[in-house]
Structures are given as C-alpha cells and as structure tokens.
Design brief:
Length: 183
C-alpha cells in the first residue's frame, strides 16, 4: 500500500526530460544519476539490459544528480551531456560518459564531443560559459525534493525504488507495474 509519506518524484516527467522509449510506454523508469559515480556506472549496463528486454513497454528518463563534493568531474560531465543534447546528441554523450567514466576531465570531454560528431567550438563555448549549469541544478534540486539522497536513485512510475539494483529485481518490479497498468 502506497502512503503519502513515501518518496515520490516531485517534478513529473515532461518535455524537458531526456527520455528513451515512447511516452506511451506502460512503465517509466527515472534515474537520478552522476556520471562519475561508480554505483551509477555499475547500474548503467543493468538499465541498458532492461531497455532491451522491455522495448517499447519502457520509457527511461535520466536526470542529473552530480555529487560534486565526492566526484570533482560530475558537474562538468552533466553539463557536457546537456551541451551534447543541445546538438541532438544527449544519449550518445550519456553512453560515452558511462563507458569512459574514469576519464571525465575537460580534455576528454572535448575528445568525446568530437567522437560523437558535435560542433567542437559550440561545445567548448557551452562548457566555458557553463551554459547548462542551471539545467543541471534544476535536476539536482528536483532530486532533493523527491528524496534522492545518493546515486543512483530510481523511480518507477514516480515512486522511489529502494530495492536491489540488479536486472532481475528491477525487471520484476517493472513487470509488476506494467501488469497492474494493463488490468
């Protein structure tokens, strides 16, 4: 039984979000994540496996929650993902950042931008001007209001998921929610 006190996603998923999968999917999984967090790095292939297994029945949304005190490159990496998004390459940068999680300094971020076909001068300018700092901050603050207290934090249909972060556990919850919605 759900209560009014359980942590819930305070900012509903909408047009501002980066989403993979259709808006009409049976179930939405939202991650508040940090590109430099090793636990997020471990969850990344689990999410990819879930996306493959559920196909169009799953919409996956990523929101930034950089833990700057612990991960010195997390904010810059989040801003780099947003700068890539401005050039319609958010997910390519997202995947690249998790694939190369241990090399997120500015030199590498520019290299990754080039490797995914971004306009290098536009990308460098966005990073130098912190053009997407406010967007990253909005995600972070909405996470705080939603009860995110570490990364990764997942929400299934707007309710915080506090279970194990392995494929079988998450898949079971997603499947149960999808089945309930079908009824």
């Amino acid at each position: 039984m759900r209560t009014q006190f359980e942590p819930r996603l305070r900012l509903p998923v909408g047009e501002r979000d980066h989403a993979r999968g259709p808006a009409t999917a049976l179930v939405t999984l939202v991650e508040s994540g940090d590109y430099e967090c090793p636990y997020c790095g471990a969850a990344y292939p689990v999410v990819e496996e879930l996306r493959q297994a559920f196909g169009d029945r799953l919409r996956f949304v990523f929101r930034h929650f950089p833990l700057a005190e612990m991960h010195p490159h997390a904010v810059d990496a989040a801003e780099a993902a947003e700068a890539a998004g401005a050039q319609q390459r958010f997910w390519e940068m997202h995947d690249t950042l998790y694939t190369h999680q241990r090399a997120l300094d500015d030199t590498h971020l520019v290299k990754y931008a080039s490797s995914i076909g971004l306009d290098p001068s536009q990308f460098r300018r966005a990073l130098a001007e912190n053009a997407y700092a406010e967007r990253v901050r909005e995600d972070f603050l909405s996470g705080v209001r939603s009860g995110v207290n570490g990364t990764p934090t997942f929400f299934v249909e707007g309710v915080r998921y506090d279970g194990p972060l392995d494929f079988d556990s998450l898949a079971a919850v997603l499947h149960d929610v999808a089945e309930q919605k079908r009824r």
